[in-house]
């Protein structure tokens, strides 16, 4: 596994993020998904975030990204949701017949950490520290 680093630390922080369209409306097509991805990738560097993978279904998107320890994840998520909501409704006005209010995304989101080892393995490793072999 390749680790990222800066002057004082090494790290590997990856996250799986899911946004759902308001009311689970099935409005995301390939063109809209591409634009959502472009918006997210455009603002990501401002928050020390890099996209690793992106995909979509008709009513939600999945994003795998890496972050820096100083990344403000909640600020990035809010900026991403706000910018994409505003721009998608402006650039694809046909969406307004499905989403008539100002929101494109549901207020909630799912953010999961990703890692190589299961929690039980990490717990066992930490518990075994200091034991003589």
Automatic annotation (TrEMBL):
Ranges for domain Transposase IS200-like: 10-129
Swiss-Prot/TrEMBL GO biological process terms: DNA transposition
UniProt-listed Pfam families: Y1_Tnp
Molecular-function GO terms, alphabetical: DNA binding; transposase activity
Regions crossing the membrane: none
SMART domains per the UniProt record, alphabetical: Y1_Tnp (SM01321)
Protein name, per record: Putative transposase
């Amino acid at each position: 596994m390749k680790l990222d680093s800066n002057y004082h630390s090494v790290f590997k922080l990856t996250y799986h993020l899911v946004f759902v369209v308001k009311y689970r409306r099935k409005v995301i097509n390939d063109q809209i998904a591409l634009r959502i991805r472009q918006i997210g990738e455009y603002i990501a560097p401002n928050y020390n975030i890099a996209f690793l993978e992106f995909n979509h279904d008709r009513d939600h998107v999945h994003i795998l990204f890496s972050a820096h320890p100083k990344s403000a994840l909640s600020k990035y998520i809010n900026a991403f949701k706000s910018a994409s909501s505003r721009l998608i409704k402006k650039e694809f006005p046909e969406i307004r017949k499905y989403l008539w209010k100002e929101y494109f995304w549901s207020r909630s989101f799912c953010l999961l950490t990703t890692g190589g080892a299961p929690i039980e393995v990490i717990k066992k490793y930490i518990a075994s520290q200091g034991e003589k072999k």
